[in-house]
Amino acid sequence: MGLQKDFLWGGATAANQVEGGYDQGGRGLANVDLLPFGKDREAVMAGELPMLSFDKDHYYPAQKGIDMYHHYKEDIALFAEMGFKVYRFSIAWTRIFPLGDEAKPNEEGLLFYEQLIDECLKYDIKPLVTICHFDCPIHLVKEYGGWKNRKMIDFYLHYAETLFERFKGKVYHWITFNEINMLLHAPFMAAGLVFEEGEDREQVKFTAAHYELVASALATKRGKEIDDKNLIGCMLAAGDNYPNTPNPEDIMAAKLVDRESFFFTDVQVRGYYPAYALKELARKNIQLDITEEDKQILQQNTVDYLTFSYYSSSVASGDPKVNELREGNLFPTLKNPYLDASEWGWQIDPLGLRITMNTLYDRYQCPLFIVENGLGAVDVKAENGVVEDDYRIDYLGKHMKEMIAAVELDGVELLGYTSWGCIDLVSASTGEMKKRYGFIYVDAENEGQGTFKRSKKRSFEWYRQVIESNGDCLK
């Protein structure tokens, strides 16, 4: 038993968190470039504090990232040394279409990714490409309002088609949108939404969600037409919600919170809006711009597999007074007394990964792919210059054991596993560098200071052994 022989072990990053080079190679400005480090970051992510250009009062971490734009060959060589079978990365929309609405793509941007992909293939590493990892060209935000505008579907489709055609025969694994459900929690970061005075925010968010769902389905259709070997997936920020107590009200509350996320994947995997979602939209008096053609597109172009991120589980209550005690982060949750938490308050729940895998597989019966899982921690170099990150090895090892149990004992069909931030990168939620995830240390600080030199942590060799043994060394 165990994992399939061709199980895809690897790591994952996002363009806006690693590349830097924001003004090089003809690249345009994107929403994700404008997420500042510091106290204003969350308000900007949420679309509450409009920020459509750089100012002198903030530091913008995406401008530098970890400078992978200039280090990608070195980084991919290190991934190959660990034995990666797959590398999940995203393409920056504004490297390909700097404004987003041009007819012709930027050749320099396409060439950069072609070289990056060729570097992966040189080491027999399969590229897993996220077409849109929260990117929205800022021109499209200013000119069209981001994803609140139906015209975005055509701009996105033109962008996706350009990638499918250029990388045909080199890339076969695709994800249409990263963590599509994050649109509800961080609407500017996830969909380029900035709210105007008096605007119905729920109406705007669900309108944008519908347009992204149609765009995802159309990209799935075109991707198959351009190359029938393409496998195209969707992605969910996942993690089961547990009821706070056995009180049926808490159990119902947990189910309702889960549905906020399943709303997206129910459409992408099943091909239609679920009844509970239509009822909820009606209760909120939200009128979606759904055409008969939209319904047909969604129905006929479901995804091949479901990818998801998993960092922690959450706890929900039906009691409003209890809910006042919820902690922050992008997914507010009650504390679970049975779990420890990371330095950033994320509750560590390895068994929750197995539970989440079963929930998703029972619901959809389609192949799963874990494309993000990792521990953000403060890493300190020992006297010998090495980061002795046993805490990361412990976290990942426990999660991988539960992942294998879901496959071996529960029969979940799993294509692969890519740890998040296989190399240190800028944290999406906080904009910090000190919240490190990688097997590879990058000498860079929160506000861009450092040599950007790469070095191996203790976890580097550990992960190499995990991949080499296909997980057997964990037993």
TrEMBL record:
Cross-referenced Gene3D superfamilies: Glycosidases
Coiled coil (UniProt feature): none
MF terms (GO), sorted A to Z: beta-glucosidase activity
Pfam families, alphabetized: Glyco_hydro_1 (PF00232)
Keyword set includes Hydrolase: yes
Superkingdom assignment: Bacteria
Keyword annotations: Glycosidase, Hydrolase
PROSITE patterns linked: GLYCOSYL_HYDROL_F1_1 (PS00572), GLYCOSYL_HYDROL_F1_2 (PS00653)
GO biological process assignments: carbohydrate catabolic process
Catalytic site: E372
Keyword Hydrolase found: yes
UniProt name for this protein: 6-phospho-beta-glucosidase
GO CC, alphabetical: cytosol
SUPFAM superfamilies reported in the protein's UniProt record: (Trans)glycosidases
Organism whose genome encodes this protein: Enterococcus moraviensis ATCC BAA-383
Similarity comment: Belongs to the glycosyl hydrolase 1 family.
